[in-house]
Amino acid sequence: MAPKKRSVKQSRQIAMVFDLNKCSGCQTCSVACKMLWTRDNEGKDGTDYMWWCSVNTQPGRGYPKDWEKMGGGYRDGMLQLGELPDRESFGGGWDFNYDEVFYGGKGTTAHLEPEGKPPEWGPNWDEDQGAGEWPNSYFFYMPRLCNHCTHPACVEACPTGAMYKRDEDGLVLRDEDNCKGYQFCAKACPYKKIFYNHVRGISQHCIMCFPRLEQGVAPACARQCPGRLVFVGYLDDAKGPIHKLVNEWKVALPLHAEYGTGPNIFYVPPLSSAPLKEDGTPDDENPRIPNEYLEGLLGPNVQDALATMRKEMAKTRAGKKSELMDILTVYHWEELFGEFTGDPAASKLREKRSK
Amino acid sequence: MASSNPSTPAKRNKGQHWADTYRDQIRWDDVKWGTHCVDCYPGGCPMRVFTRDGEIVREEQAATFQPIEEGVPDFNPMGCQKGVAWSATRHGEERLLKPLRRSGERGEGKWDEISWNEALTEVADSVLDAIEESGPESVVRISGAEAVNPVGQGFSRVMGMLGSVTTDVNAEINDFSPGLYLTFGKFNVCSSLDDEFHAELVIFFMKNIAYTHIATSHYTAEARYQGTEVVLFAPDCSPSHMTADYYYPVRMGSDAAWALGASQVIIKEKLYNEQFVKEQTDLPLLIRLDTGRFLRESDLEEDGDEEQFYAWDTAKRRLAPASKTTLRWGRVKPALRGRRKARLKDGSLVEVAPAFDLLREHLNRNYTPEKASKICGVNAGEIRKLARKVAKKRTLVWAGGTSLKYYHADLMVRAVNVMLGLTGNWGKKGTGITCWSVGFFDGPDITAQKTRPGRRAAEAAIRQREDYVAAFKAMDDTWTDEMAGIEMAHYAASNGLIGMVPPAFFWYYHCGYKERWNNPEWGDPSMKRSFDEYFEEALDKGWWEGVSRPGPETPPRVLIQAGGNTLRRVRGGGTQLLKNLWPKLDKIITLDWRMSTTGRWSDIVLPVANEYETPGFHLSTPHMVTLFHSEQSVKPPGMAKTEWEIGLLLAKKLEQRARKRGLREYVDAYGNTHTLDDLHDRLTLGGNIITEEQVATEMVRDGALTDSLPDDTSLAKMKKQGYQRFTGLGLSVLDLNQAGDIEPDETFNHSTWHTQKRLPYPTLTRRAQFYIDHPWFLEAGEEFPTHKENPKMGGDYPLGLTSGHNRWSIHSIQIANRMMLQTHRGRPHLVMSTVDAAKRGIEDNEEVRVYNDVSDFLVPVKLSSSVQPGQVICYNGWDPYQFRGWRGPMDVEPGMVKWLHLAGGEGHLRYWPFQWQPTPVDRAVRVDVEKVREKDLAKVAAST
Description:
The complex is a heterodimer. Chain A has helices at about 30-40, 85-90, 100-105, 155, 185-190, 210-215, 220-225, 240-250, 290-300, 300-315, 325-330, and strands spanning about 15-20, 55-60, 75, 80, 140-145, 165, 170-175, 195, 200-205, 230-235, 255, 265-270.
């Protein structure tokens, strides 16, 4: 059965909130995604280099390299076609000389290393490099996947009509049977989260684990996150944590809203530790992560969001309750997933493969 | 060698709708419980392992934990990126699939594929040759931290029956904490991880939780949201700074100073918890000012007790003996201050003072916040603030692995213990110092004691154990069960009843470390005598009686590595072993599921089952207070076999080959007789236990006979629910060391038996001991914790090389797996400050040479502003074969041990498994870094 094609009126939207204060950059989300969707079979599937979900150290050049400089999205309501990230800007996908090292009879003259020229970029290349000067250096982690935008530039740019935004939940999907691999979508996507599959001649991107959602199971990146920081649910669920974090408390913000696509992945900005003054005393008045940097990522409202976070944290430090802190604490893990609390090991997923 | 992965994602059937290919991806035809039985803490993350057409598709965290304590977040989903991609190692190219025999020179990498029969014949013959010619101690098993699945221990049990020697893993991977041991008489105090949520102040001390506790580090962020303050002390602004409120940079190896500075403030401002100090610690005990030794009954009376200590009772103004059986003082009001006179048995008067008073003076003299600040670099005012917070708040210290691996780590940990002890910060919720431990699952030990299967035999084994405990307690009726357990463990180790020995002697006599440890340039400048003088004194005095083996007269003949990677992990470097140990060995045998550097340098390599390929249990820990089960989801690939099956085959092969040479039995150096004609029978409990399922069934049922598991715990139940929360500590001494009650609906705290029931600690003074009066400690000036500079290990060079774990592997287990290699730069790197790099003209990703007087290695650099200038970081879990010339950071580490840790003969200073012993250290070895020149590349190539 085909997912429904785009409709004029979109009724509901699934969204996610990532609480960056809980993200330790462990890559479990990205690895879980890879294990499920883009693990390659000896290069036959064309997905080997793809990390639909990636986690990068911020500040950094990211994945693909310098994606924020590549353009796309909307300017003054007009679709912009930006750069097409090339294979090198994604990097990774390395193969290694296992046979030579283990069984090649070369003693210790051969060591295990990526084949070909030494690697220069990959999905997590600038991990933990950050910015600033020690001891006031700073960094944090940001998981990124398709934003399943409200105004998806990729859909508008698609010349074949293969890309569409699903009515019932707002997922941005691609009819792979109609995709011709023209890659206008990848040029238009300002987040550069669309990948070209050289084997199949089509583009691919995060599908928000729609087969799991259909079974009431949260996406792998969310359900498998050991940091318990990924909220999933319908944005219009007034009682759900996403609505509360995004619309009521206003502490969850979209990444680069100025790109004009209306992303539906939101981020709770990082608080970080106090920087140190010259004499080694903490400077509680100023942030370790410069305001301008966070504003550049999450927009001018990030200061209000952080102020709200600090105010609510001050409450709990004074022994008082805070609804916001309770939401973010997530006492019960299932609170993260709205109606998508299904178990992937439930028997209804036992083999009924479509023929 | 690797086979292809049959679980192809998104494989399309012709004509299938595109969306259905994705839908098919999440389907499976069978699901089982899996976990990863490796040396990872907390580890044991419960996974669901999905199979399709008999092959693993993927795994996902089960996430079925119920909340434990009301108001504390649950443990779900628990599992990191390594765990959720473990199945990628099943068919990884590093996987071993066939038994191999070296066909070229050692280490050359030329192999013949051989049959199991050939392989085991060669193993058996080499072992029997060694036993016949040099005795069983010439067969040395390097213990495998990675082979801890008790169900799999067939191979190691057979080797144990032979009387071979195994090296204590805790020294080998330097995971022993001398600082905790000196204070508590046990290194392994450990609360459950969710207890962090109760803390009001969390201090990260030599720990980078963002890397090392991925599965449960959410508790830090969650506690912080609910009012907990989080503080990080570290040289580098590590990734853990993100969840901290305050990051205090410290000079490498100077952490004792801030903790002692805070302790000074706590005493000076009278912020200490007087009752706790008097009851729980040795601080009220009197010390003779003439000798610096505790005042003992033997000082006062002829035939007086060497281990009876005293306080000054201010109520009755006289000496009051400290009870050995309770921490309570009753009507005695012990003094913490002042000088008194005590009359010795010869009639002379000697001045005595409570340890508290001496500590106060020591801190006032040397560790005012201003003085401490000069040492460690933390602002004096901040040290004062910290002291006041620690005194006021429930404080938890996370002591990371680095707190085990500095030369003077013991002093740093002891300093932190003083700060916590003064403020009553252990033995209640949200407090304590948490390191690591194992425990609670006694089933494997009980099963191993049995000669026949079944419940009755297990009950008999438990009764026999109770008899032993009773017999030991009869020697001293003041011993607690914990103390009797320690006596038993010490006795067993010293009499060859368990083959485990501290490896320091093996290294010293047989691996070339004598020379290094005696190098005064690399040693502690405060040493008053040479290392060898101390070494000889320790042996002459019999402090290491029975465990200083294999001695110089027993050169090793056969080296066996099952589930470890000694050439990777030995501090001092693989090249040191290759140069000194390898030439002595007739046969080197490795059992592993992956090709490690040690495997690659072996004569025989045997492929074993990986996780999910054999039933098993994770090494259980207080961190989780839960027993985790792993089912067999698939068979081992290729010719790989489970360790249990290899044990069975080897037992038969040994019997057969021994019979052929007419060898039936022999006597070892202790006089213990070992028989060779019944190995298989003993292993299988009379031929009754043949399959892993049977072994697992016995172990679970036997374990449920103790209080640690519910009575109805069975293998069938474990298969249904995947894991079971423990209900009690169990029997073994490592269990009892936790000294706390496990409640079904509460977080777990160590040491509550001490703080609430007032049971004594297993130390010399039976209190948490801050003052160590052993003559060597007095000679070293380390009777109280103090700051000492890290020795210039490796020579006088400007940079300090540190390690610590990475994110992407558990030690070297996944370090060469292609999936994990994609998540970083695909090869080793040295993290270096942008400042130090600029000085040397070094750019990011440039290959550099790291060198000192020991050796050198080449590695690409990763620049980071988060590293303290003067510090470079290179993870020591990279497999050496990932470096040019197979030399990595271990090879520039001389592997020094602190001489003082050879002290023994008094109180708790003695060896029992996993505990008091010298361990080689690696942190802040001195190095320099330079740009690589062409001739360096040639040199590395030539030297290998």
